[in-house]
Write a structure and sequence with these properties.
Helix content: 40-55%
Strand order of the largest sheet: 2-1-3-10-9-4-5-8-6-7
Number of strands: 10
CATH superfamily of the largest domain: Isocitrate/Isopropylmalate dehydrogenase-like
Structural class: alpha/beta
CATH topology of the largest domain: Rossmann fold
Strand content: 15-25%
Distance between the termini: 26 Å
Largest sheet: 10 strands, mixed
Radius of gyration: 20 Å
């Protein structure tokens, strides 16, 4: 499953490659990934450089942006200057239909990529929340979907409320089902399993699980669960023998950004796992962030996922 899910993602992207924008032409990893993407026909890459960022387009984008609800800029010259930023130019190119998605974050911070996406792209009204997920592919692993997991949120929301945590879970489950083609089994993680400990942090996770179940009764979700109860069948049989998620979870929802970010990096480094993302969820138009520690293969796979999401629009 570890290799097959990555292979499948690339093959599905090749079936209908889309225009994907890359605003980080100075990064060698990005440029090597673009060469791979172009050679394998995974996407139709558009690499933004000072020479192809058209001044007429910048003017057009600035005019469109100035009409956006919530635009904080009062001075048009400030907006015009903003469109000289390749990240905003890329996002507006996607918003106006000149491209189908963008991939950035090899040099830009996650907060910068997320800010450009939130300001320029359209929010999915069915979710009304921007979050992110990682595809984690762990070699020689029998847990999850034979080593394949979705981790969330590891990049956007520092301290989600119960309502936000519920939407993060639903967004991530949809991503798992539609893009990765795995049936999601969602675990809301905590340091408690079904009341084994008490406290307001546990109450938050438990409430989030209940809200998510009410919003999406078609999804298999459970919480609060400790990580071992979520992943290990023997532990789950002792603690929660009747749960349909415990011991089988493949979508892991972390209680806050600290836990999610730390855990994905530990998994990546200690288990030599592939970490693809963060994939930004909750927008109508697809885009993907990258870890600044990403490798060429991560960028290629992030691009393939962005193409698949664009296909499904």
């Amino acid at each position: 499953m570890y290799n097959s899910v990555i292979t499948d993602i690339r093959q599905r992207a090749k079936a209908n490659p889309k225009k994907i924008v890359f605003p980080e032409y100075k990064d060698e990893r990005v440029m090597e990934a673009v060469r791979v993407v172009e050679k394998e026909k995974i996407a139709q890459p558009i690499v933004l450089t000072p020479s192809n960022m058209e001044s007429e387009k910048q003017e057009e984008f600035a005019n469109i942006y100035s009409d956006f609800k919530g635009n904080k800029y009062k001075d048009f010259d400030e907006i015009r200057e903003l469109m000289e930023n390749p990240l905003y130019y890329a996002a507006m190119l996607v918003r106006t239909g000149g491209a189908d998605g963008f991939v950035a974050g090899a040099t830009y911070t996650t907060s910068s990529v997320a800010r450009a996406a939130i300001r320029c792209l359209e929010i999915d009204p069915s979710l009304n929340l921007i979050s992110s997920s990682f595809l984690m592919a762990v070699p020689n692993c029998s847990h999850g979907e034979r080593g394949v997991f979705v981790y969330a949120d590891c990049g956007i929301i520092p301290y989600p409320t119960p309502e936000q945590l519920a939407v993060i879970a639903i967004s991530s489950a949809r991503f798992a089902r539609i893009v990765l083609k795995i049936e999601p089994r969602v675990a809301f993680l905590s340091f408690s399993t079904k009341g084994s400990a008490k406290g307001r942090w546990i109450d938050k996770v438990r409430e989030a699980a209940e809200i998510a179940k009410e919003k999406s009764p078609d999804l298999l979700m459970d919480g609060e669960l400790q990580a071992d109860a979520a992943l290990d069948k023997d532990v789950a049989n002792r603690k929660l023998p009747y749960s349909k998620v415990a011991g089988y979870a493949n979508v892991l929802i972390f209680p806050n950004l600290d836990a999610g970010n730390i855990c994905y990096k530990l998994t990546q480094r200690l288990a030599r796992a592939r970490a693809v993302g963060p994939i930004i969820l909750g927008l109508k138009q697809p885009c993907s962030d990258l870890s600044r520690g990403c490798e060429v293969e991560d960028i290629v796979d992030c691009t393939a996922i962005t193409v698949i999401r664009a296909q499904q629009r």
